[in-house]
Fold DUF4314 domain-containing protein.
Amino acid sequence: MNFDRNKVEMVKRRYPVGTRIRLNSLCNVERDMPAGLCGTVIGVDDQPSLLMKWDNGRSLSLMPFEDDFAVIGQEMDVETGQQEQSL
């Protein structure tokens, strides 16, 4: 697979695991993915796509350079009670 490691690393830094996202719109039509839906980044793949855990139970990935969304926060680390990473 052909991918740009620099682009992948940039996306990982910009959207670390635990980043909370609010969806505005997707580049394609997906059922049960309305604008305003929130979710949490659980990883980044080599595309780079954001691997997501959506609040509605879905796991559809986001394409950071194609989909429209906003960062709304960072989840807290359960053990320390602090933000996992700053944005």
The mean pLDDT is 88. The two ends are 29 Å apart (CA to CA). The longest helix spans residues 5-14. Strands lie at 19-25, 38-44, 50-54, 68-74.
